[in-house]
Design brief:
The chain has a two-stranded antiparallel sheet with strand order 1-2. It is built from 19 helices and two strands. By secondary structure, it is mainly α.
């Protein structure tokens, strides 16, 4: 039986219980940013039935991952889980999403704990497709915590099932995460193979948003083995798709990496130009993470060109930004960069004190 729900706000939204999730799921594959704002509008409606609201919270956390909003990932996944109203499938989805939020914020112990809960939940509820996603997330967490043996075990188990999944959007997201951990483990050919499989799915979808992300990830694999020209070619494709999508976030990430690759190829003028464009795009986006990322890259380029005073000022500004938004992994890296900059400037006491300030963060 289909029950019709009517939402009143500035606009009137009419959905059925049976179709709303499918409708939004389909729209996510086309324009995730638009879906994010649509769900935001729905969630503030006081007439929204509570069971539907908690499902939309989980869906919103998943969309937040796609558009790089770690605070929203954690906000909505935690809120949904706290209700105690989620069915097994939605509970598993919330845990998987929450684990990705901790991953983006660089909180690797929380990342592992949540991914492990997701694996346990999917095993208890016999949710095979979600178990694959949970295993891949736990493998990523194991790797980031230095436990590559267990990471490899989870990947071996996940791939048995992953290869059997139909080539649909959900599989592409898992393939990306599978590729990422293999890249970090040094399994470059495996990483390339599965990222290319994800890209084939995105190409069939024809979505510029996901093609931009897929080409970006493939470029990063070539970056891992210092093949700067191939990396640049794929990153340029990523940037062109981001332009087509009018996506400032993806534009900023792609431009920033293009700058890095051109710098490594010795094209310093091109590197600076790309990075200046990246900062403009980042500041027009809603992602704090990309704003930190592009400024970190600019500080690197300034340091490589012996512009240490400018690099120092930019690093101090960016460390404050990372602290405000709880991006602890980035904050530690930036502090180490600042300490090295002080050392290059001959200010050894400041270098020591700066480096010392990172110690409590490393122990958290």
């Amino acid at each position: 039986m289909a029950f019709v729900i009517v939402f009143y706000s500035n606009c009137v939204f009419s959905y059925t219980y049976t179709n709303i999730d499918k409708t939004l799921d389909h729209q996510i594959t086309i324009n995730p940013k638009a879906v994010f704002y649509k769900i935001e509008a729905l969630l503030v409606d006081t007439e929204l039935p509570v069971n539907l609201k908690v499902r939309l919270m989980v869906l919103q956390s998943e969309v937040a991952y796609i558009i790089d909003q770690p605070e929203s990932i954690l906000k909505y996944s935690k809120a949904a889980l706290a209700t105690g109203l989620l069915t097994d499938i939605w509970h598993a989805r919330a845990l998987i999403s929450q684990s990705r939020g901790y991953s983006q914020r660089g909180q690797f112990h929380e990342f592992f704990a949540t991914a492990n809960m997701a694996v346990i939940k999917t095993e208890q509820s016999s949710l095979l497709n979600y178990k694959i996603a949970a295993l891949v997330e736990r493998a990523n967490a194991y790797n980031l915590l230095g436990n590559n043996t267990n990471a490899a075990k989870d990947l071996t188990l996940a791939i048995k099932y992953l290869d059997l999944m139909p080539n649909i959007f959900d599989k592409a997201i898992i393939l990306e995460r599978f590729s990422t951990v293999n890249k970090r483990l040094g399994n470059i050919e495996v990483a390339q193979k599965y990222q290319r499989q994800a890209n084939v799915i995105y190409e069939k979808m024809g979505s510029p948003h996901y093609l931009s992300v897929g080409y970006y990830n493939l470029a990063r694999i070539y970056q891992e083995i210092s093949q700067w020209q191939d990396a640049s070619s794929w990153m340029l494709k990523s940037y062109r798709q981001a332009l087509k999508d009018k996506n400032k976030l993806n534009q900023a990430f792609s431009l920033s990496r293009l700058s890095e690759y051109q710098n490594n190829l010795g094209n310093l003028t091109a590197a600076k130009n790309y990075l200046n464009e990246a900062i403009i795009a980042a500041d027009l986006s809603t992602s704090e993470r990309v704003k930190i990322h592009v400024r970190k890259n600019m500080a690197n380029i300034l340091a490589k060109n012996n512009e240490f005073t400018k690099s120092r000022a930019l690093l101090i500004e960016t460390i404050k930004l990372a602290k405000t938004h709880k991006m602890e992994r980035d904050r530690v890296e930036l502090i180490h960069m600042l300490a090295e900059t002080y050392f290059k400037l001959g200010n050894f006491e400041s270098a020591y004190l700066t480096l010392k300030s990172a110690s409590p963060l490393l122990n958290d």
